[in-house]
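Q: Hi! First time doing this. I have a protein sequence and I read that you can turn it into a structure. Is that right? Here it is:
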Amino acid sequence: MHRFDLLEPNSFEAACAILAGDGEARPIAGGTALLTVIKQGLLLPRTLVNLYKIQESREITYDLELGLSIGALASIYDLETSPLIRQYYPVLAEACHVVANVRIRNMATIGGNLAHGDYQSDPPTVLTALDARVELLAAHGKRQLDLSDFLLGSYETALEPGELVAGVRIPPMPPGTRGVYIKFTTGSSEERPCAGVVAVVDGESGICRELRLAIGAVSPKPLRIDAGEEMAKNKELNPELIDRIAAEAARAVDPIDDLRGPAEYKRHLVRVLTRRAIRNCRGGGQAELRS
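A: Yes, that's right. Below is the predicted 3D structure, encoded as C-alpha coordinates:
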Protein backbone atom coordinates (compact mmCIF):
# COMPACT_ATOMS: atom_id res chain seq x y z
CA MET A 1 0.00 0.00 0.00
CA HIS A 2 1.28 3.45 -0.94
CA ARG A 3 2.30 5.66 2.01
CA PHE A 4 0.54 9.00 2.41
CA ASP A 5 -0.13 11.71 4.97
CA LEU A 6 -3.67 11.78 6.41
CA LEU A 7 -5.25 15.09 7.39
CA GLU A 8 -8.60 15.32 9.20
CA PRO A 9 -10.21 18.78 8.98
CA ASN A 10 -13.35 19.50 11.01
CA SER A 11 -15.30 21.31 8.26
CA PHE A 12 -15.70 21.37 4.50
CA GLU A 13 -14.27 24.89 4.46
CA ALA A 14 -11.08 23.70 6.17
CA ALA A 15 -10.85 20.76 3.77
CA CYS A 16 -11.20 23.07 0.77
CA ALA A 17 -8.42 25.31 2.14
CA ILE A 18 -6.09 22.28 2.37
CA LEU A 19 -6.96 21.14 -1.15
CA ALA A 20 -6.48 24.64 -2.55
CA GLY A 21 -2.99 24.82 -1.05
CA ASP A 22 -1.84 21.36 -2.13
CA GLY A 23 -2.53 20.25 -5.67
CA GLU A 24 -1.35 16.71 -4.83
CA ALA A 25 -3.87 16.21 -1.99
CA ARG A 26 -7.03 14.17 -2.58
CA PRO A 27 -10.23 14.03 -0.50
CA ILE A 28 -11.48 10.73 0.90
CA ALA A 29 -14.75 9.86 2.62
CA GLY A 30 -15.94 6.23 2.66
CA GLY A 31 -12.98 5.24 0.51
CA THR A 32 -14.77 2.36 -1.24
CA ALA A 33 -13.66 3.59 -4.66
CA LEU A 34 -10.55 5.68 -3.95
CA LEU A 35 -8.69 3.07 -1.91
CA THR A 36 -9.24 0.51 -4.68
CA VAL A 37 -7.72 2.91 -7.20
CA ILE A 38 -4.75 3.55 -4.89
CA LYS A 39 -4.17 -0.17 -4.32
CA GLN A 40 -4.12 -0.70 -8.08
CA GLY A 41 -1.45 2.00 -8.42
CA LEU A 42 -3.62 4.16 -10.68
CA LEU A 43 -3.43 7.11 -8.28
CA LEU A 44 -0.66 7.75 -5.75
CA PRO A 45 -1.51 10.89 -3.73
CA ARG A 46 0.95 12.19 -1.17
CA THR A 47 -1.82 13.50 1.10
CA LEU A 48 -5.36 12.30 1.79
CA VAL A 49 -7.88 14.69 3.32
CA ASN A 50 -10.32 12.65 5.40
CA LEU A 51 -13.84 14.12 5.28
CA TYR A 52 -15.56 11.32 7.14
CA LYS A 53 -15.53 13.05 10.55
CA ILE A 54 -17.40 16.15 9.35
CA GLN A 55 -20.65 15.21 11.10
CA GLU A 56 -22.90 18.08 9.97
CA SER A 57 -22.61 17.01 6.33
CA ARG A 58 -24.53 13.76 6.95
CA GLU A 59 -27.93 15.37 7.46
CA ILE A 60 -30.99 14.50 5.37
CA THR A 61 -33.82 17.05 5.58
CA TYR A 62 -37.04 17.79 3.70
CA ASP A 63 -38.97 21.01 3.09
CA LEU A 64 -42.40 21.02 1.40
CA GLU A 65 -41.40 23.94 -0.83
CA LEU A 66 -37.68 23.31 -1.37
CA GLY A 67 -37.65 19.52 -1.41
CA LEU A 68 -34.94 17.14 -0.20
CA SER A 69 -31.49 18.14 1.03
CA ILE A 70 -28.83 15.43 1.42
CA GLY A 71 -25.42 16.05 2.96
CA ALA A 72 -22.54 14.71 0.88
CA LEU A 73 -21.31 12.42 3.65
CA ALA A 74 -24.65 10.66 4.09
CA SER A 75 -23.98 7.01 3.33
CA ILE A 76 -25.83 5.03 0.69
CA TYR A 77 -27.33 3.06 3.60
CA ASP A 78 -28.49 6.34 5.18
CA LEU A 79 -30.41 7.11 1.97
CA GLU A 80 -31.76 3.58 1.78
CA THR A 81 -33.19 3.71 5.32
CA SER A 82 -34.07 7.41 5.70
CA PRO A 83 -37.76 7.79 6.70
CA LEU A 84 -37.92 11.04 4.71
CA ILE A 85 -36.60 9.46 1.52
CA ARG A 86 -38.80 6.39 1.98
CA GLN A 87 -41.82 8.67 2.36
CA TYR A 88 -41.18 11.26 -0.35
CA TYR A 89 -38.78 9.57 -2.82
CA PRO A 90 -39.11 5.77 -2.31
CA VAL A 91 -37.65 5.05 -5.75
CA LEU A 92 -34.34 6.58 -4.54
CA ALA A 93 -34.39 4.42 -1.41
CA GLU A 94 -34.97 1.34 -3.58
CA ALA A 95 -32.06 2.21 -5.89
CA CYS A 96 -29.76 2.63 -2.89
CA HIS A 97 -30.94 -0.69 -1.45
CA VAL A 98 -29.63 -2.59 -4.49
CA VAL A 99 -26.14 -1.02 -4.43
CA ALA A 100 -23.48 -3.72 -3.92
CA ASN A 101 -23.89 -5.13 -0.38
CA VAL A 102 -24.71 -3.75 3.04
CA ARG A 103 -21.04 -3.37 4.02
CA ILE A 104 -20.36 -1.16 1.00
CA ARG A 105 -23.59 0.77 1.51
CA ASN A 106 -22.61 1.56 5.09
CA MET A 107 -19.24 3.01 4.01
CA ALA A 108 -19.89 4.59 0.60
CA THR A 109 -21.15 8.20 0.67
CA ILE A 110 -23.48 9.81 -1.83
CA GLY A 111 -20.96 12.64 -2.39
CA GLY A 112 -18.18 10.18 -3.13
CA ASN A 113 -20.47 8.14 -5.36
CA LEU A 114 -21.23 11.16 -7.54
CA ALA A 115 -17.68 12.53 -7.49
CA HIS A 116 -16.32 9.17 -8.68
CA GLY A 117 -18.45 9.41 -11.83
CA ASP A 118 -18.83 5.64 -12.28
CA TYR A 119 -21.25 5.12 -15.17
CA GLN A 120 -22.19 1.71 -13.74
CA SER A 121 -23.75 3.00 -10.54
CA ASP A 122 -27.36 2.92 -9.39
CA PRO A 123 -28.05 6.20 -7.50
CA PRO A 124 -27.01 8.66 -10.27
CA THR A 125 -29.60 7.20 -12.66
CA VAL A 126 -32.48 7.80 -10.26
CA LEU A 127 -31.13 11.21 -9.19
CA THR A 128 -30.98 12.22 -12.85
CA ALA A 129 -34.67 11.36 -13.28
CA LEU A 130 -35.51 13.32 -10.12
CA ASP A 131 -33.85 16.50 -11.49
CA ALA A 132 -31.25 16.51 -8.70
CA ARG A 133 -28.73 19.31 -8.34
CA VAL A 134 -25.24 19.00 -6.88
CA GLU A 135 -23.85 21.55 -4.43
CA LEU A 136 -20.13 22.18 -4.93
CA LEU A 137 -17.84 23.95 -2.48
CA ALA A 138 -14.35 25.38 -2.98
CA ALA A 139 -12.13 27.84 -1.14
CA HIS A 140 -13.39 30.63 -3.42
CA GLY A 141 -17.10 29.92 -2.93
CA LYS A 142 -20.10 27.72 -3.73
CA ARG A 143 -22.01 26.80 -6.86
CA GLN A 144 -24.78 24.41 -7.94
CA LEU A 145 -25.04 22.29 -11.07
CA ASP A 146 -27.76 20.06 -12.44
CA LEU A 147 -26.56 16.49 -11.99
CA SER A 148 -26.87 16.00 -15.76
CA ASP A 149 -24.32 18.82 -16.23
CA PHE A 150 -22.09 17.63 -13.39
CA LEU A 151 -21.67 14.13 -14.81
CA LEU A 152 -19.69 14.55 -18.03
CA GLY A 153 -18.81 10.96 -18.94
CA SER A 154 -17.36 7.73 -17.66
CA TYR A 155 -15.38 8.64 -14.49
CA GLU A 156 -15.47 12.30 -15.59
CA THR A 157 -17.23 15.10 -13.73
CA ALA A 158 -17.31 18.90 -13.68
CA LEU A 159 -15.42 19.03 -10.36
CA GLU A 160 -12.66 21.62 -10.50
CA PRO A 161 -9.32 21.29 -8.65
CA GLY A 162 -9.83 21.85 -4.92
CA GLU A 163 -13.61 21.53 -5.20
CA LEU A 164 -15.79 19.16 -3.17
CA VAL A 165 -19.30 17.78 -3.51
CA ALA A 166 -21.03 19.29 -0.46
CA GLY A 167 -24.59 18.07 -0.95
CA VAL A 168 -27.46 17.05 -3.20
CA ARG A 169 -30.79 18.84 -3.66
CA ILE A 170 -33.95 17.29 -5.12
CA PRO A 171 -37.07 19.38 -5.83
CA PRO A 172 -40.48 18.31 -4.47
CA MET A 173 -42.51 15.86 -6.55
CA PRO A 174 -46.20 16.27 -7.49
CA PRO A 175 -48.61 14.35 -5.22
CA GLY A 176 -49.36 10.86 -6.49
CA THR A 177 -46.17 10.52 -8.52
CA ARG A 178 -44.94 6.94 -8.77
CA GLY A 179 -41.41 5.71 -9.50
CA VAL A 180 -39.82 2.37 -10.38
CA TYR A 181 -36.13 1.48 -10.71
CA ILE A 182 -35.11 -1.77 -12.38
CA LYS A 183 -31.53 -3.00 -12.27
CA PHE A 184 -30.27 -5.89 -14.41
CA THR A 185 -26.99 -7.65 -13.65
CA THR A 186 -25.29 -10.42 -15.59
CA GLY A 187 -24.05 -12.12 -12.42
CA SER A 188 -24.90 -11.80 -8.74
CA SER A 189 -27.27 -9.15 -7.42
CA GLU A 190 -24.31 -7.37 -5.77
CA GLU A 191 -22.67 -6.55 -9.10
CA ARG A 192 -22.77 -3.20 -10.84
CA PRO A 193 -25.73 -3.03 -13.21
CA CYS A 194 -25.42 -4.06 -16.84
CA ALA A 195 -28.37 -1.71 -17.32
CA GLY A 196 -30.54 0.36 -15.00
CA VAL A 197 -33.83 2.03 -15.90
CA VAL A 198 -35.93 4.42 -13.83
CA ALA A 199 -39.42 5.58 -14.76
CA VAL A 200 -41.26 8.25 -12.78
CA VAL A 201 -44.90 8.91 -13.69
CA ASP A 202 -47.11 11.80 -12.59
CA GLY A 203 -50.66 10.98 -13.58
CA GLU A 204 -54.19 10.11 -12.58
CA SER A 205 -57.28 8.55 -14.13
CA GLY A 206 -55.06 6.69 -16.58
CA ILE A 207 -53.56 9.87 -18.09
CA CYS A 208 -49.84 10.64 -17.74
CA ARG A 209 -49.24 14.30 -17.06
CA GLU A 210 -45.46 13.82 -17.04
CA LEU A 211 -43.05 10.93 -17.55
CA ARG A 212 -39.43 11.07 -16.45
CA LEU A 213 -37.31 8.32 -17.93
CA ALA A 214 -33.57 7.81 -17.35
CA ILE A 215 -31.25 5.02 -18.46
CA GLY A 216 -28.03 4.21 -16.62
CA ALA A 217 -25.02 1.89 -16.82
CA VAL A 218 -25.07 1.45 -20.60
CA SER A 219 -23.75 4.86 -21.71
CA PRO A 220 -20.91 7.06 -20.35
CA LYS A 221 -23.45 8.86 -18.10
CA PRO A 222 -27.13 8.51 -17.16
CA LEU A 223 -29.34 9.62 -20.04
CA ARG A 224 -32.79 11.21 -19.92
CA ILE A 225 -34.95 10.06 -22.82
CA ASP A 226 -36.43 13.44 -23.74
CA ALA A 227 -38.29 12.31 -26.87
CA GLY A 228 -39.84 9.40 -25.00
CA GLU A 229 -40.92 11.70 -22.18
CA GLU A 230 -42.56 14.02 -24.69
CA MET A 231 -44.46 11.11 -26.26
CA ALA A 232 -46.13 10.37 -22.92
CA LYS A 233 -47.22 13.89 -22.01
CA ASN A 234 -50.97 14.05 -21.35
CA LYS A 235 -51.46 10.63 -22.94
CA GLU A 236 -52.80 7.31 -21.76
CA LEU A 237 -49.91 4.93 -21.18
CA ASN A 238 -51.38 2.08 -23.21
CA PRO A 239 -49.28 -0.90 -24.37
CA GLU A 240 -48.73 0.55 -27.86
CA LEU A 241 -47.43 3.88 -26.53
CA ILE A 242 -45.22 2.15 -23.96
CA ASP A 243 -43.68 0.03 -26.74
CA ARG A 244 -42.96 3.18 -28.78
CA ILE A 245 -41.32 4.88 -25.80
CA ALA A 246 -39.24 1.77 -25.09
CA ALA A 247 -38.09 1.67 -28.72
CA GLU A 248 -37.08 5.34 -28.50
CA ALA A 249 -35.07 4.63 -25.34
CA ALA A 250 -33.19 1.81 -27.09
CA ARG A 251 -32.52 4.10 -30.06
CA ALA A 252 -31.32 7.04 -27.94
CA VAL A 253 -28.71 5.26 -25.80
CA ASP A 254 -25.07 4.93 -26.84
CA PRO A 255 -24.06 1.62 -25.22
CA ILE A 256 -20.51 0.81 -24.17
CA ASP A 257 -19.16 -2.62 -25.08
CA ASP A 258 -17.68 -4.19 -21.93
CA LEU A 259 -17.47 -7.45 -20.01
CA ARG A 260 -21.16 -7.20 -19.11
CA GLY A 261 -22.29 -7.33 -22.71
CA PRO A 262 -22.02 -5.94 -26.26
CA ALA A 263 -23.80 -2.78 -27.36
CA GLU A 264 -26.69 -4.46 -29.18
CA TYR A 265 -27.41 -6.71 -26.22
CA LYS A 266 -27.63 -3.61 -24.01
CA ARG A 267 -29.96 -1.88 -26.46
CA HIS A 268 -32.26 -4.87 -26.24
CA LEU A 269 -32.07 -4.76 -22.44
CA VAL A 270 -32.95 -1.07 -22.40
CA ARG A 271 -36.04 -1.70 -24.51
CA VAL A 272 -37.23 -4.58 -22.33
CA LEU A 273 -36.50 -2.86 -19.00
CA THR A 274 -38.03 0.45 -20.09
CA ARG A 275 -41.25 -1.28 -21.06
CA ARG A 276 -41.30 -3.10 -17.74
CA ALA A 277 -40.54 -0.01 -15.63
CA ILE A 278 -43.30 2.10 -17.22
CA ARG A 279 -45.81 -0.72 -16.95
CA ASN A 280 -44.97 -1.16 -13.28
CA CYS A 281 -45.39 2.58 -12.69
CA ARG A 282 -48.73 2.60 -14.43
CA GLY A 283 -49.85 -0.47 -12.53
CA GLY A 284 -48.71 0.77 -9.14
CA GLY A 285 -45.64 -1.44 -8.95
CA GLN A 286 -44.05 0.71 -6.24
CA ALA A 287 -45.02 3.17 -3.55
CA GLU A 288 -45.89 6.72 -4.44
CA LEU A 289 -43.50 9.67 -4.29
CA ARG A 290 -45.49 11.90 -1.96
CA SER A 291 -45.28 15.60 -1.25
